[in-house]
Description:
This protein has helices spanning 10-19, 35-39, 51-60, 71-75, 78-84, 98-101, 103-112, 126-136, 159-169, 238-258, 293-299, 304-312, 390-403; strands at residues 2-7, 27-32, 43-45, 63-68, 89-90, 120-123, 140-144, 153-156, 181-185, 190-199, 203-205, 210-211, 214-216, 220-223, 228-231, 264-273, 279-285, 327-334, 358-362, 365-367, 373-375, 379-387. By secondary structure, the protein is α+β, with helices and mostly antiparallel strands. 48% of the residues are buried. The site of glycine has 7 residues, from loops.
Amino acid sequence: MRVLVLGGGGREHALAWKLVQSPMVSQVLVSPGNGGTAADERLTNVPEMALPDLVQWAKHQRIGLTVVGPEAWLARGVVDAFRAEGLAIVGPTQRAAQLETSKSYAKAFMQRHGIPTAAYQTFTERQAARDYIHAQGAPIVVKADGLAAGKGVVVAASVDEALQAVDAMLPELNPNQGARVVIEACLQGEEASFMVLCDGETVLPLATSQDHKRLSDGDQGPNTGGMGAYSPAPVVTPELHARIMREVIKPAVQGMAKDGEPYTGFLYAGVMIDAQQTVHTLEFNCRLGDPETQPILMRLRSDLAAVLLAAAKGCLGDAELDWDTRCALGVVLAAAGYPQAARVGDVITGLPGPQDDLEVFHAGTVRGEGGVLQSAGGRVLCATALGANAADARRRALEAMQGITLEGGQYRRDIGWRAAGGKR
Length: 424
Ligand code: AMP
Ligand code: GLY
């Protein structure tokens, strides 16, 4: 079977790396891919195409299964277009993907189906939003409605910061141009990423994970797309796992079916767990997390292609996933200037040679002239290692990182600190 992976980040490199190990798979094509997928002779990069061209190309190439990485493709309706041509694809429809692409849709959905989430209100007018912030006080969270690649959320510590966020997200005049913000209560606790695979009915949970969204050690600095992740997340005890399935995932999947839009593909619930073990849903994503996917797939022992094909065909049935019991941990190397204005075009050297239980997944990299590896995006690489525990996996990932040179490169040294017993 020929498999197509859409996207070019670290998540897609990890997906392609895992899929190509399946005995069912003859070739994995990645569009557009990156410098890492280009260097792997088992993978083939394909230039990015407009949706109608992509559908024709996939038919012509006899692609047996397509796996969608980023939400942008889902928002464009790639799943609807592939299905209309009888092509097997893993992902939600354009309408179902609103769970991620519209914060106000997601919040109304959660309220309608009794899924625990922070109290909120939606605004299109600046003055009404400002009044609400004054009435509520800080801390408070301001979210832009619509896809913002992780940049549309401001966790404001002060009223002033919240007001500034509103001013930046809502135009002063012409409030009816479609801009909207969700303003919600600020939740406290520990976050976890809870991902499942759905075939419209059956839900198959993946291993748990935790992401580190802040740029710098000690969870300081601006929010990013994720500077590192590890799996499993010990905060998700078996009891909490059952609770998240019961209170968040099952109502979401059943709710989508009730709303006439059965959910297919990966569903990612970002949850906040407080000291009383109460779970609140921060967000839904309609895709796998990046960088969570990198450590999660390092632990997956099952044949990913077989499971994804079953999901695409609506017959997950009683599929189970087999996980390495060890911990996997990924440390992201980001470019100078990330997350505000990432510098691109810097040369990357010193990548480690093949080693057991260590993979350096590429994200924003390209092969320049003469095959020289260069940075091409904010998050550049994710060094991911398996270890006996989080501290051990982190030590191995950091060892790999120390050998890599990228001018101005930034990475955290404390990924997984909670699982490593608080050691940074
Ligand atoms: P989102 O894209 O909605 O998940 O928001 C991105 C990040 O902002 C989350 O991972 C949290 O760290 C933080 N965040 C979002 N909503 C809240 C909230 N209601 N309370 C506290 N932190 C939040
Ligand atoms: N790492 C967070 C996300 O993929 O949304």
